[in-house]
């Protein structure tokens, strides 16, 4: 049994009670070895979003380094793509595929060269140059990109926003990423170390702005979430 004294440093601290069971609870039973201390002074809305997208981007860039590479990101206005671009500025060039021209400035602000999803000539032209493609869309778009990529290039599939699988004649360049794939051999020390690295580089500029909703207004938050081309993230506040 772990002595409570060994985790005395967590008392009175804000933590992320991750790897515990259940959500939307007043009390969570979490093994303190897996509780992530939130740095003093870090805004709550940043800490609340430090898990899925920042951790996914951090792990992908650790596994597939982009320094000096030509990189392509689909769903370029998504939070994870924005983090991949912001944290991957050591790349030689980053192309960002987005749905509308009105999103070009947002994509450019994150250090990407914007490409319109419907401009398949431009999309495939960039795909032929790419060393790494991080794809969150799947479906026809990913299949078309994969079909023209160079033999030594790789596509990392980390989402299926299209709800359609990737279909291509040659799937040898396709790599799958899912956070849970890393959990089988995970230890608390590795877990804590990941977040120490994330805290060191997570800033206000790296995540979208938020719009706060009271917990009782969850339906309004869902309606806002479903608005097309919104740039803010709804966040539910308790208390």
Explain what the structure shows.
The structure is a single chain. The protein is of the alpha/beta class and about 240 residues long. Among the domains are: about 50-180, 3-Layer(aba) Sandwich (Rossmann fold), CATH 3.40.50.720; about 210-239, no CATH class. It contains 8 helices and 10 strands. The protein has helices spanning about 45, 50-65, 80-85, 105-110, 120-130, 140-150, 190-200, 220-225, and strands spanning about 15, 35, 70-75, 95-100, 115, 130-135, 155, 175, 210-215, 235. The protein has a 6-stranded parallel beta sheet, with helices on both faces. Helix 2 crosses helix 3, helix 2 (about 50-65) crosses helix 7 (about 190-200) and helix 5 (about 120-130) packs across helix 6 (about 140-150). The longest helix has 14 residues, at about 190-200. The radius of gyration is 19 Å and the shape is globular. The protein starts with 14 loop residues before the first strand and ends with a strand. About 25% of the residues are buried.
């Amino acid at each position: 049994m772990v002595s409570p004294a060994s985790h005395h440093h967590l008392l009175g601290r804000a933590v992320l009670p991750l790897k515990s069971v259940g959500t939307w609870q007043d009390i969570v039973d979490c093994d303190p070895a897996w509780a992530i201390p939130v740095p003093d002074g870090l805004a709550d809305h940043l800490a609340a979003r430090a898990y899925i997208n920042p951790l996914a981007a951090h792990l992908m860039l650790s596994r597939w380094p982009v320094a000096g590479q030509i990189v392509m990101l689909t769903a370029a206005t998504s939070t994870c793509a924005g983090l991949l671009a912001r944290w991957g500025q050591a790349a030689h060039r980053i192309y960002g595929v987005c749905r509308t021209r009105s999103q070009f400035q947002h994509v450019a602000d994150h250090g990407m060269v914007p490409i319109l999803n419907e401009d398949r000539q431009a999309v495939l032209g960039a795909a032929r140059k790419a060393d790494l493609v991080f794809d969150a869309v799947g479906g026809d778009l990913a299949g078309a990109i994969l079909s023209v990529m160079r033999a030594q290039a790789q596509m990392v599939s980390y989402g299926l926003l299209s709800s359609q699988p990737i279909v291509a004649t040659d799937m040898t360049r396709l790599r799958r990423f899912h956070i849970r794939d890393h959990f089988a051999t995970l230890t608390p020390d590795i877990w804590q170390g990941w977040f120490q690295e994330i805290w060191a580089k997570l800033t206000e500029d790296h995540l979208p702005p938020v719009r706060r909703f009271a917990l009782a207004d969850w339906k309004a938050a869902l309606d806002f979430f479903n608005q097309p081309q919104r740039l803010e993230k709804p966040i539910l506040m308790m208390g």
